Amino acid sequence: MATVSAPESIVARLAYVKAPTRDQIADNSQVVATVTAVLKDVRERGDAAVREYAKKFDGAELDRFEVSAVDRQRAVDELDVQTRSDTEFAIANVRRFAEAQLSTIQPLEIEPYPGLHLGHRVIPIQRVGAYVPGGRFPLLSAPIMTIVPGKVAGCDEVVACLPPNAHRAMIAGCHLSGADRIFLIGGAQAVAAMAYGTETVPQVHKIMGPGNAFVNEAKRQVFGPVGIDQLAGPSEIFVVADASGDPELIAADLLGQAEHDVRTRVGLITTDRALAEATLAEVERQLNVLATAKVAELSWRDYGEIVVCDDEAAMIAYSDHVAAEHLQVHTKDPHGFGAKLRNYGSLFIGRNASVVYSDKNVGTNHTLPTMGAAKYTGGLWVGSYVKIATHQWLEDKAIRVVAPPAIRQSDSEGLEGHRKAAEIRLRRLG
Q: For binding NAD(+), which residues are annotated in this chain's numbering (predicted)?
């Protein structure tokens, strides 16, 4: 297995109190082969193939994939009062934040030269697909994060797919979040159905949402004719902390994320060895009483790390190298320190800002870049559901300005058709 090491400029300034035993996901060649076959089959045979894979992978035999309006409402009615209230609280917060973000994306019109008009429009994507993972637990926030921003953005249609064996509350969550259509299709076959369309599932223009290794690989393979939000690997959380860090809080936050998956990457980056050692001991103590320790302990054993840095500069450099999905700042001046960081999916400033709040209901999106992708992109947001499409129009007087250099450039490039297209317009002006 290949490893991804810290840059040499940082290595000499690091000391591991706990080093990870694994640095990346194992070879997934079998996943690639399986997904390739599923995509080809669904593309060629549509619903029939989807139905067979539902039985093979999910043990579900369905006459129809789409959840009817009656069953959608029944799923909502089955929610207990508190769960429905909490779900609607989270939906309201995500919607409010998405609306605020959308208000910052403005159309543009400029006139750099008299008569030359340039601009762009903000155009909602017509139809998007939201993959809603099933998982070991019913993640009630998952449909909220992928469906609500699409409705706020103004997409004509948001199509949701979730595994046939997903908890009924997940159907309710899709309905309350505003999904236009809901299908009980999971895994790579769901991605294929949305990407290519079937007899019953409409073809979408972009697919959003995280999933397992098969979903991720399917998104990778269909990308091109259909868009995707990002490729999401196992979850990650890192905490950067100085001597003011609280080992009990840090350990609780690390394990809170580690219980997601045995491949979750969790870590502490600090300048204080005493904090590092205290956090190590605290993680072990909390694992002894954690109900989900069976998963969290494997994650901690294989992917957990605690790094002690020589100074603040090394801590910042190593954090930016990791580019964690979730990055918590536990320092004396968390706002000042946070402003120095640049590579993260979402930043949690101060000890009160636990990932759990963002995961569930504060309003920021929990679908975020992993595996170092935060070095070049942010997470899912309302802007993921719109296109910024440019336009231009010219008055006659602008042609006199732009045509001569365009003609000369086309001529130097040997592109006669380009040159003539510019010349004819200039000539008609006399």
A: 131, 189, 212
